[in-house]
Amino acid sequence: MSGNSWSASSRGRWGDLAHAVRRLITSSPSRFAILIFATLILLFTALFSLPIASASGTVTPLNDALFTAVSTICVTGLSTVDMATHWSPFGHVLTFLGVNIGGMGVLTLASVLGLVISKKLGLRAKLLAAGDSNPLRAHGGVVNEGQTVRLGEVGQLLMTVAMSLILIELVVAALLYPGLVMAGIHPLTALWEAPYYSAMAFTNTGFAPNATGVVEFVDDYFVLTVLMMGVFLGSIGFPVIYTLAKHHFHVKRWSLHSKLTLITTAILLVVGAVVFIILEFDNPKTFGAMDAVDTTFQSFFLSAMTRSGGFSVIEISELNGSSKLAISMLMFVGGGSASTAGGIKVTTLAVLALAVWSEARGRQSVQVFGRRIPSDVQRVALSVVAWGATIVALSTIVITQITKASTEDVLFDVISAFGTVGLSTGLTAELPQSATYVMAATIFMGRVGTVTLAAAVAATTRTQLYSLPVERPIVG
Question: Which long-range contacts (CB under 8 A, 24 or more apart) does 396-403 make?
Answer without folding.
Answer: 398/435, 398/438, 399/431, 399/435, 399/438, 399/439, 402/432, 402/434, 402/435, 402/438, 403/427, 403/431, 403/432, 403/435
